[in-house]
Design a protein that fits this description.
Blueprint lengths: L1 E9 L13 E7 L5 E9 L9 E6 L1 H7 L9 E6 L8
Parallel strand pairs: 3-5
Antiparallel strand pairs: 1-2, 1-4, 2-3, 4-5
């Protein structure tokens, strides 16, 4: 799983039919301290994440397809939670 912050929305006029009505977001990956380590595009699984939210992302196709209950879905990364806080030992 990946921790990240949503940095933007993706808007597309032409997309695979699977994505109709689904929200795609740009997520900046981070370590526990919040240090950035790259970007990815993830679909919101219904947790209603938005720009600025810190989120939990699954970045593995089979797991993402299990969440959407479609073994043929063209999805790899999916947001499965909005993080309220992280309690980590130093």
């Amino acid at each position: 799983m990946i921790i990240g912050t949503v940095r933007g929305n993706i808007v597309s006029t032409i997309a695979h039919p699977f994505y109709t009505g689904k929200k795609l977001l740009v997520v900046e990956k981070e370590d526990l301290a919040g240090k950035p380590s790259g970007y990815l595009v993830a679909m919101d699984s219904g947790v209603d994440a938005g720009v600025g939210d810190r989120v939990l992302v699954i970045d593995e196709g089979n797991s993402a397809r299990q969440i959407v209950a479609d073994s043929q879905a063209p999805v790899r990364s999916i947001i499965v939670g909005v993080i309220d806080r992280i309690d980590a030992e130093p």
